[in-house]
Structures are given as C-alpha cells and as structure tokens.
C-alpha cells in the first residue's frame, strides 16, 4: 500500500495537527476525537479518489472540515468564516 494512503501513516504524520485543528473549533475532547475518527473512516472509503493534487494533510483537513460542519449543523450552531466576520 502506498504510504500516502496508509491510515497509520496519516495518524502518525498528521494526527496531532488534525486533533488540534478540530479541538480548537469544538472545544470538547470527546467530540474532537469522534470527528477525527469519522474523518478517518470517510478518508478510508474515499482514498481511491485521492489523486495527489494536494498533500495528504490538506485532503484530510478538508474531510475533517466537512465533518465539523455536519456536526455543527446537527447541533444547530452557526459557523461564521473569518472572512465573513471581517467584512
């Protein structure tokens, strides 16, 4: 298996970053862990679609961002992007 598509490599190389990224947004350790796990499952099922147009960290962060948006929608919270807030 290509190391770029190996989930253990994803966690070893990017796990701390991904967890920190989501934890800063959701402010709950358990939710952050759950969202990272959901992201890993989604990435596993979609890894055939990864075509090296971006680095693995960018790809995983994009998936995690979508999982976070889904979480906030389920919670009924509104997310404002920094750009919109600054306009």
UniProtKB/TrEMBL annotation:
Q: Which GO terms describe its biological process?
A: DNA-templated transcription initiation
Q: Which UniProt keywords apply?
A: DNA-binding, Sigma factor, Transcription, Transcription regulation
- Outline the extent of the RNA polymerase sigma-70 region domain: 12-77
Q: Do you know which SUPFAM superfamilies this protein is assigned to?
A: Sigma2 domain of RNA polymerase sigma factors (SSF88946)
Q: MF terms per GO, please?
A: DNA binding; sigma factor activity
Instruction: Identify this protein by name.
Output: RNA polymerase sigma-70 factor, ECF subfamily
Q: What organism is recorded for this protein?
A: Nitrosomonas marina
């Amino acid at each position: 298996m290509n190391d770029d598509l190996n989930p253990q490599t994803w966690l070893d190389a990017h796990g701390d970053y991904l967890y920190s990224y989501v934890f800063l947004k959701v402010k709950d350790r358990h939710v952050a862990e759950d969202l990272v796990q959901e992201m890993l499952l989604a990435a596993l099922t979609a890894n055939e679609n990864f075509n090296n147009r971006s680095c693995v960290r960018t790809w995983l962060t994009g998936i995690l961002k979508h999982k976070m948006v889904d979480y906030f929608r389920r919670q009924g919270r509104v997310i404002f992007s920094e750009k919109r807030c600054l306009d």
